């Protein structure tokens, strides 16, 4: 795996991305400190469409289902296109403490259509009310259910696992648990976007400081501590960065150069490759945390790359 140093040159950043980052920082200046207002206020603001990410738009094509979970019924949201070549098991982001399976319907429906996969998004329980190991337990349960029911429910056993930020962390955790606890290593691929893989904080997260470009150091630490709830942050089941990564599927990693979690992706992708797996790494100049969801050229290109990867892995 080769990383071009030119990707980190400020001159390489698309002007549209420069403008987006400036807009994000201006908006952040007018918003209250997330840690001070607390998680409940953040959740309410997100639900009502306030803040950086705009209103939640739900699709009438999403189908809510319930599967068995470790603590009772576990919700999933399913998008099934006309042609189904595989399944994309998706875990949403939000620092393990925010978000839901129906908060990004448009993007999940786009993946379903463009990659020709049934998309299954998991409504795992959230920290701090349900900290580790609850979200990880439910990620494992969802993966096990998909493996056992893929052919009967969707007509295919080709499964790609993925997510962004905390969702990428849960996707990695689910794959590791399926290997270690169930002996399953048959996933077709992993789509891991700006994941949070080391909750003890990698150098980029530790050294980022207080520049609020979606995330800063304090916010990274706050979310990690809510999820871990006193657990050892270097336990491989808490931080996949410390896990044995052998026998993992081909993976697509994406991150931007202006993301506090940059090193999480760079280091995890390197460890993935060193363990004998195939890894493709995409680094976008100037991309902030969450850039792939933005209506910019960089965002659109990254989404297209992800969709091609998923489609290729199930074809």
Find the count of extended strands (DSSP E, 2+ residues).
Answer: 8
Q: How many helical stretches?
A: 10
CATH homolog superfamily: Alpha/Beta hydrolase fold, catalytic domain
What is the string of SSEs from the N terminus onward? HHHEEEHEHEHEHHEHEH
Question: What is the CA-based Rg, rounded?
Answer: 18 Å
Q: Name the overall outline.
A: globular
What does this structure look like?
This protein has an eight-stranded mixed β-sheet, sandwiched between helices. The protein has one domain (10-314): Rossmann fold, CATH 3.40.50. The chain is built from ten helices and eight strands. It is an alpha/beta fold and 315 residues long. The longest helix has 21 residues, at 134-154.
Properties at a glance:
Rossmann fold; alpha/beta; 10 helices
Topology overview:
Layout: H1 15-29, H2 34-37, H3 39-47, E1 63-69, E2 72-79, E3 86-91, H4 105-115, E4 117-123, H5 134-154, E5 159-164, H6 166-182, E6 189-193, H7 203-207, H8 217-228, E7 251-258, H9 262-274, E8 279-288, H10 297-314
Parallel strand pairs: 3-4, 3-5, 5-6, 6-7, 7-8
Antiparallel strand pairs: 1-2, 2-4
Helix pairs in contact: 5-6
């Amino acid at each position: 795996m080769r990383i071009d140093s030119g990707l980190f040159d400020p001159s390489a950043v698309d002007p549209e991305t420069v403008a987006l980052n400036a807009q994000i920082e201006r908006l952040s200046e007018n918003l209250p400190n997330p840690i001070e207002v607390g998680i409940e206020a953040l959740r309410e603001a997100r639900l009502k469409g306030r803040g950086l990410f705009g209103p939640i738009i739900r699709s009438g094509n999403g189908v809510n289902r319930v599967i068995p979970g470790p603590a009772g019924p576990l919700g999933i949201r399913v998008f099934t296109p006309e042609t189904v070549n595989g399944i994309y098991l998706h875990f949403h982001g939000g620092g393990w403490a925010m978000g839901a399976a129906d908060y990004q319907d448009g993007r999940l429906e786009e993946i379903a259509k463009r990659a020709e996969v049934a998309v299954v998004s998991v409504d795992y329980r959230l920290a701090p009310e349900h900290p580790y190991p609850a979200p990880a337990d439910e990620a494992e349960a969802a993966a096990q259910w998909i493996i056992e029911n893929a052919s009967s429910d969707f007509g295919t056993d080709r499964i790609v696992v993925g997510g962004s930020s905390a969702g990428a962390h849960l996707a990695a955790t689910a794959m590791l648990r399926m290997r270690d606890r169930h002996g399953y290593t048959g996933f077709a691929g992993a789509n891991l976007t700006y994941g949070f893989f080391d909750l003890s904080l990698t150098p980029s997260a530790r050294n980022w400081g207080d520049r609020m470009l979606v995330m800063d150091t304090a916010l990274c630490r706050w979310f990690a501590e809510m999820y871990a709830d006193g657990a050892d942050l270097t336990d491989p089941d808490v931080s996949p960065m410390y896990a044995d990564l052998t026998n993992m599927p081909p993976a697509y990693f994406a991150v931007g150069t202006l993301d506090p979690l940059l090193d999480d992706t760079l280091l995890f992708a390197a460890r993935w490759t060193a363990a004998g797996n195939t890894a493709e790494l995409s680094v976008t100049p100037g991309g902030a945390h969450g850039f792939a969801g933005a209506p910019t050229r960089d965002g659109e290109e990254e989404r297209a790359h992800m969709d091609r990867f998923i489609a290729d892995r199930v074809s």
